[in-house]
TrEMBL record:
Pfam families in the cross-refs: ADK
Coiled-coil residue spans: none
Protein name as catalogued: Adenylate kinase
Gene Ontology biological process: nucleotide biosynthetic process
MF-aspect GO terms: ATP binding; nucleobase-containing compound kinase activity
Top-level taxon of origin: Bacteria
UniProt keyword annotations, A-Z: Kinase, Nucleotide biosynthesis, Nucleotide-binding, Transferase
Gene3D superfamilies for this protein: P-loop containing nucleotide triphosphate hydrolases
InterPro entries tied to this protein: Adenylat/UMP-CMP_kin (IPR000850), P-loop_NTPase (IPR027417)
């Protein structure tokens, strides 16, 4: 968990590669796919969520919790672990999802990792971010990697500045940071009280962050 731009997605992708029996579930990516899917163009609830999403605000907690709960059961039934990036986002979601995680995996196997960066770093990273366009991937990369193979799926990453569908994240950055402070921090506080947790200085380089994240996860799995 952490601010937009803290590196949650990047580290989750790397963890999933390190632990093949774990799946990276990107809540934001799942919401994006759902609200952008033409099959839901006539669904008033999804269209309402689409407006909220592209406005930079957090989606309706009950709706998001339903999506997440569905995937937890799906992966658990396949005996797969889950690495979340961007979930839970609100106190409601945290309180709704925790009992499901405990039922499926056991409280002792749940670890909360808080990735700490300043708002200034979050803004700078968002300005320099591009995202893989392959369906089901959406790997976050630095714009300097534009035109190069995606580290996750191998498809060429988009050239810097060509992702119109990602520009809203920059335009709505102030709103997104405010939403985190007012709505996600209470969820984080709740989970830190209930579960094992660590915090990582995510201002440092990606490799050093991953080393700390990996160490924490391995300790939790012992």
């Amino acid at each position: 968990m952490g601010l937009p731009g803290a590196g949650k997605g990047t580290q989750a992708f790397r963890l999933a590669a390190q632990f093949p029996n774990f799946v990276h579930f990107d809540t934001g990516g799942e919401i994006y796919r759902r609200v952008s899917d033409p099959h839901f163009a006539a669904d008033p609830l999804v269209q309402e969520q689409k407006e909220i999403y592209f406005g930079g605000k957090l989606n309706t907690p009950e709706w998001v919790a339903g999506l997440v709960a569905e995937r937890i059961h799906f992966y658990s039934d396949k005996n797969q672990g889950v690495i979340f990036s961007g979930s839970p986002r609100t106190l409601y979601e945290a309180e709704a999802i925790l009992p499901i995680l405990e039922e499926c995996y056991g409280r002792e196997r749940i670890l909360v990792i808080e990735m700490k960066v300043s708002p200034e770093t979050a803004r700078e990273r968002s300005l320099n971010r591009i995202t893989c366009t392959k369906k089901g991937c959406r790997y976050p990369a630095h714009r300097s990697q534009g035109g190069k193979p995606c580290p996750n799926c191998g498809q060429l990453l988009p050239e810097s500045g060509t992702q119109a569908d990602e520009q809203w994240k920059i335009a709505q950055m102030g709103t997104r940071l405010k939403e985190y402070e007012e709505r996600t921090k209470p969820a984080l506080k709740f989970l830190k009280y209930e579960l094992a947790h660590v915090h990582v200085n995510a201002e440092i380089d990606e490799e050093s962050v991953f080393a700390k994240v990996l160490e924490a996860v391995k300790r939790n799995l012992e």
